[in-house]
């Protein structure tokens, strides 16, 4: 109770399976006494492109544009665009970040990748020599909750897609761990479009059940071995 949760949600349709997973998380966590904030990226028409527009006012080097350098400098000056300032405030306040999305091309939808690209600015999320266990977003947890088109068999070791953990490496280790955020076990709903209505209900119940004991969970040991052993 009293924990703060930010759910970053990337689906266009509230009636979708992802929409149902979002609704469940908001309801269950609120019931527990958590304060829940949702960034509904499509509804917000969140800008996914990392451009010059993310810096308000003058540039550090107007002769040759360098996005990483300019956003780092703008962060220090307090000159990042308002949409980024707002997302960073939500991240700063959160104890837990939940990412809810459908798997797109073995990765996250572009709008969510754009959120990562633009919000997790140097100086805010990481810095020179402040990465991985020393990243700037310490004492936070993250959880990747996503759906797939492919079945569990396809994403098992020996399956056509390879172990699902391979796709988690860039997201969990390359982004969250890099920024110092601890990682809970992912929550994966396989092929909601291709299973029975009954199976879909079971998957939704399993998510509710998991959320009930979420705060007792230990983070994974987010190291290369977890992904590629
Ligand atoms: P939906 O189609 O919204 O939901 C499935 C069914 O559940 C629907 O019939 C819906 O009505 C029903 N439903 C919703 N709520 C409830 C409820 N409360 N109770 C019961 N039923 C409910 N897949 C891969 O595996 N790998 C990839 O690399 C990949 N790349 C993709 C790239 C793109 C560009 C796209 C568009 C898709 C890709 N996919 C891939 C497939 C994608 O991951 C799936 O289509 C998606 O995960 C399905 O989730 P959804 O929420 O959109 O399902
Ligand atoms: Zn890691």
UniProtKB/TrEMBL annotation:
<dbReference type="InterPro" id="IPR051545">
    <property type="entry name" value="NAD(P)H_dehydrogenase_qn"/>
</dbReference>
<dbReference type="GO" id="GO:0003955">
    <property type="term" value="F:NAD(P)H dehydrogenase (quinone) activity"/>
</dbReference>
<comment type="subunit">
    <text>Homodimer.</text>
</comment>
<keyword id="KW-0597">Phosphoprotein</keyword>
<keyword id="KW-0862">Zinc</keyword>
<keyword id="KW-0285">Flavoprotein</keyword>
<protein>
    <recommendedName>
        <fullName>Ribosyldihydronicotinamide dehydrogenase [quinone]</fullName>
        <ecNumber>1.10.5.1</ecNumber>
    </recommendedName>
</protein>
<dbReference type="GO" id="GO:0005829">
    <property type="term" value="C:cytosol"/>
</dbReference>
<keyword id="KW-0274">FAD</keyword>
<keyword id="KW-0479">Metal-binding</keyword>
<feature type="domain" description="Flavodoxin-like fold">
    <location>
        <begin position="3"/>
        <end position="211"/>
    </location>
</feature>
<dbReference type="Pfam" id="PF02525">
    <property type="entry name" value="Flavodoxin_2"/>
</dbReference>
<keyword id="KW-0963">Cytoplasm</keyword>
<comment type="similarity">
    <text>Belongs to the NAD(P)H dehydrogenase (quinone) family.</text>
</comment>
<dbReference type="GO" id="GO:0046872">
    <property type="term" value="F:metal ion binding"/>
</dbReference>
<dbReference type="InterPro" id="IPR029039">
    <property type="entry name" value="Flavoprotein-like_sf"/>
</dbReference>
<keyword id="KW-0560">Oxidoreductase</keyword>
<comment type="function">
    <text>The enzyme apparently serves as a quinone reductase in connection with conjugation reactions of hydroquinones involved in detoxification pathways as well as in biosynthetic processes such as the vitamin K-dependent gamma-carboxylation of glutamate residues in prothrombin synthesis.</text>
</comment>
<dbReference type="InterPro" id="IPR003680">
    <property type="entry name" value="Flavodoxin_fold"/>
</dbReference>
<dbReference type="GO" id="GO:0001512">
    <property type="term" value="F:dihydronicotinamide riboside quinone reductase activity"/>
</dbReference>
């Amino acid at each position: 109770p009293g924990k703060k949760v930010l759910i970053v949600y990337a689906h266009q349709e509230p009636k979708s399976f992802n929409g149902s997973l979002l609704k469940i998380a908001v309801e269950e966590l609120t019931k527990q006494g958590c304060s829940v904030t949702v960034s509904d990226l499509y509804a917000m028409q969140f800008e996914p492109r990392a451009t010059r527009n993310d810096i308000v006012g003058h540039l550090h080097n107007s002769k040759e544009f360098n996005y990483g350098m300019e956003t780092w400098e703008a962060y220090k000056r307090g000159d990042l665009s308002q949409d980024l300032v707002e997302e960073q405030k939500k991240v700063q306040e959160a104890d837990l970040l939940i990412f809810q999305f459908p798997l797109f091309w073995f990765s996250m939808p572009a709008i969510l990748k754009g959120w990562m690209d633009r919000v997790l600015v140097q100086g805010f999320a990481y810095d020179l020599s402040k990465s991985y266990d020393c990243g700037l977003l310490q004492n936070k947890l993250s959880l990747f909750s996503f759906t797939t088109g492919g079945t569990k068999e396809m994403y098992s070791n020996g399956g056509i897609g390879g172990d699902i953990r391979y796709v988690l490496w860039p997201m969990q280790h390359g982004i969250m761990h890099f920024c110092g955020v601890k990682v809970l076990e992912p929550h994966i709903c396989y092929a909601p479009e291709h299973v029975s209505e009954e199976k879909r209900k079971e998957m939704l119940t399993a998510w509710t059940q998991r959320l009930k004991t979420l705060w007792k969970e230990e983070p994974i040991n987010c190291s290369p071995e977890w992904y590629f052993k």
